[in-house]
Please model this.
Amino acid sequence: MADTRLNIDKPEHHVIFSDIRQNLLAMAVRGKNNKEHNRECCACQLACCARTGLAALAFLLILIFLGVTFLISLRSCLPEINICGLNFPTFEVIMHRKSATRHTASLIAQIELGIEFLNKNKKVDLSYGQLRILATAEDFHLGKAKVGAFSQKTRNSTFIRVGTRIEHVGIYKADAEQLKFDLVNSEVFLGVIIASTLSFHVGGITINGIPILARCYPKKAEIEIETKTICSVSIVPT
Model:
């Protein structure tokens, strides 16, 4: 009797383990290569950033060096400023019996100053802007003055006279008496501040409008024996 059962063949699944292993190895190699590539890129970026930073730092240091050299050169060309004359044509203290303020006296004062400007440079001419002068004595304001612009050739000196005046300025009686006592005994110290701008001319080159400040502290007794008071002259930032 013939076998009537259907012979249905099941599909055969063949798993090739060697292929899977090769694929996994290829993926691992690619992953390793990507990591190495990423590391190389990071290293290149870091090296590029480092070179850029060093270049910027070098440029900044060069600018600082040039700026310092420029300032040193300008300072070496600054003029010498001296106080050669000091006089008080008027100095009057008026006492008040009653006052609407705390001050018990008022001051009327006039000061005359003789100021010498020396350009000791051999090749640099100087041009001064308007001079603004402030006078004080023992921290007490004694007036302001202005002097017009002028120029100086090399190895030249300029002497100017300038006066300041104050009228009926309130002051404490004790301060006024001390100031008058120091003035009579030639012990008074005067503070003189001179502010201006300075231009330098050398060859065909001009450097304009450098702000300068001169601080002077003459003593009346020293001026009376013809001793100059040398001022401290400096470049000030704008």
User: Anything to note?
Assistant: Confidence is low (pLDDT under 50) at residues 4-8. The CA atoms of residues 38 and 44 lie 10 Å apart. The longest strand covers residues 80-95.
